[in-house]
Amino acid sequence: MGCGMRKSEPKLKKCDRVSISVPAATAIRAALLIQRWYRQYVARLEMRRRCTWNIFQSIEYAGQQDQIKLYSFFGHLMDHFTPACSERNLISHIFRENEICRDIEWERYFCYKSVEVADSYSGPHLTFPMTFCGVSKLVEAFKHKQQLHARYVLQLLGETWRLLRILPNINHVSTCHTKEITICGDLHGHLEDLLLIFYKNGLPSLEKPYVFNGDYVDRGKNSLEILLILFGFLLLYPNDILLNRGNHEDHIVNLRYGFTKEVLGKYRVHGKKILKLLQKIFSWLPLATVIDQKVLVVHGGISDTTDLDVISRVDRHRYVSALRPPKRSLTVNGDKNQTINEEVFGQMEGRRRVCSLTYQSPVQKFNIPQRRSLHNLPISSQLNWTVEEELKRRRRQAGFNQSYGEPKKSDSDSDPESGEPTETDENEWKQIVDVLWSDPMPQNGCMPNEVRGGGCYWGPDVTQEVLEKHNLQLLIRSHECKQEGYEFCHDRRVLTIFSASNYYDLGSNRGAYIRMGPDLVPHFVQYQASRTGIELSLRQSVGHTERSALRSLRQQLFAHKSDLISAFQEYDSENTGLISQSQWASATEKVLNLGLPWRVLRPQLVSSMKDGMVDYHKWIQELSITEPKLEISDTSILETMYKNHSNLETIFRIIDTDHSGLISLEEFRQTWKLLSSHLKMDISDKAITDLAHSIDFNKDGSIDINEFMEAFRLVDLSAHTE
Amino acid sequence: MAPKKKEEPKPAPAAPKPPEPERPKTPEFDPASVTLEFTPDQIEDFKDAFQLFDRTPTNEMKITYAQCGDLIRALGQNPTNAEIMHVLGKPTAEDMQSKMLDFDQFLPMHQHICKAKDRGTFEDFVEGLRVFDKEGNGTVMGAELRHVLATLGEKMKEDEVEQLMQNQEDANGCINYEAFVKYIMAS
């Protein structure tokens, strides 16, 4: 093998540590053989790992897309008509900003002083102004799984809110005073990871500044504790703790991804107030941090229109949620008879597409008033509905009264959001959403991030352009889970940092943080929080995460079983019960729309093969998942409910305005009507009423949301066989 | 007057030498010369796997040169790094990260590797390890194996060696190599 062999010979003679008594040529041949096999082993593991990753990520992003679609739909309804009183309340909850209140009145509402602390309370007591002692006490208490009293929560959050209001949109920090700065990525409620970081790196202090890059909440179980600790440090060292906003610092996203539920579960009496205060706090979080004028730190990323000057000037607190663009008035410029026949959903194989929240793709040629970027109607190209007809149809389905064309009066609220929306509003909103939701891509250009539904995909040329424009040398962002906790791209000018280890499941990934000195060279520290304390080998951790992903996938498959069987039967005209592998793969992708490599996954999903054909009935049966515990006669409704249970839960929580965890039967009916309208299903009133009654388990006229969702949890029978 | 025919040239020449081996030069890889013998089903399988490595958001069905070797191995072949570089046309280190190839370019490369004769079976693999079994008792010294893998052939890095050998050595630092081979081939 040419030079290679010769080079190693002298080395061989040099080492005396281990004497190899084998002839050199044989040894080398043997080494090559083993090395080849090793590399194959690693590649196979890598393939499995990618598959697993794909599964988790597709399901996660599909969920995000789903939510955005749901909100698009609501927004559309809101914009196009004024429903009758009762129904209006329902939807307006979603879009209601605030009551007519000024900050000073809010302060009174949030006041902690009336909240008494019982003598029996055994958790930490806080005093203000915040001291180092106080924060350490807090950290210790949370380490020991104690809960902070609502009084102190409100007090701490109140102080935080006051502080955040005087912070700029873009934090500037310098390494010259402190030698090194630490930068952390997504934490997502993983308290163990935050504690691990503090353990390895030390607590924040004047000499040890930290930048936290958003996504503190949702998914993990200790989102609130993380916030309280970070805010505690913020109050203590306001110049040395820098908190960026992430896309999950958004009360609407929280409805779906668990933070709302966490708070309400931990604080039954004051949860609602706490959530409201957090809503304000999130909107006041700074959007970016710049280190030494050279390194930009934002949660998501950038787009081709990103302009830090614009961002530094916006009223950031007006943009409470990415899913609520600036309100717009209805201007139907004689467009009543325009036909919409462009398919919004693209034909690209393997990926779901939804209009991005912010990006107007030049391909789409809608003729409806263009200022709404979020609310493009998903209409099939086969139907030539006019706008009018479609709206009428939907309104009818949702049971709303017909009123059309009234300019919406803007809800007055404490924030200066009244009046006509302007170009500036939309542009500003786009700047913010892009910065919180975008992802990098390898190719040049900038396009809508249709997998997530918000922000853009941006390429190396955009990185170059934006960094140069602002005289920067590095972009640090988070937002995407990375196996090693961090990853460079775009010629090492973009760095992703992710600090929640085991994000998808135990063993799925490490977390990492960055240490950076005045030379602005990032140094990484990786870690993996481990519950068992046992180091899993690479293969074991791949195996474990893989099994978990396959379980999730099987549940998705099971939830769609009717649709799958119909799709399979289309290929099986003679009703043999068998279809080919290719047919199985195409049909499954068509139904689930997750963009997964089904042929690669087949050996692990399908065991019932007959002569290379798939016995699909048997396969569906073998998915081994039990039905949800609800007893409802109409199984197709049941299946629809299961498929959309995240959406259902989201709607419930919106409706449950007093956060009691209960909604009335009437509200349930309205929810269901809304959902079926969104899904373009026709369900009779009677069916819905029957449904509502059968779910009311204790027959008292109201439905307990948690109970309801629990009843939906599917049990994977195959899980116990590991 | 012919100089003594040596296999290797004299060391430390005055001018930098081109890194050409002295034996007959292997012809450059010509994808057009490869006849594809895969079945349509196999090609579909490869496509799926190819897509898995495709990281372009628009599903352009392209992978980087650096991923080509991993993909071929993930599909069940075990070429050497040299063989991979050969079918890629001896790219530079920069090419490996930035150049992309599509599925049609990938197929002949994969086919060529599949046709290679010296594939190495389970027995070959065991034989390869037996070479280091000094006492003929079915075990090799972990330390020796580590050393060999890190210094000979297409050297592995220390952490790669570590990963391979994780939990394989017994209390005496020995590895039962048949079991080891079975373990490697099982994943």
Automatic annotation (TrEMBL), chain B:
Keywords: Motor protein, Muscle protein, Myosin
SUPFAM superfamilies: EF-hand
InterPro entries to which the protein is assigned, alphabetical: CALM/Myosin/TropC-like (IPR050230), EF-hand-dom_pair (IPR011992), EF_hand_dom (IPR002048)
GO CC terms in record: myosin II complex
Compositionally biased region (Basic and acidic residues): 1-10, 19-28
Region (Disordered): 1-32
Protein name (Swiss-Prot/TrEMBL): Myosin light chain 1, cardiac muscle-like
Organism: Sphaeramia orbicularis
Keyword Ubl conjugation: no
Native organism taxonomy: Eukaryota, Metazoa, Chordata, Craniata, Vertebrata
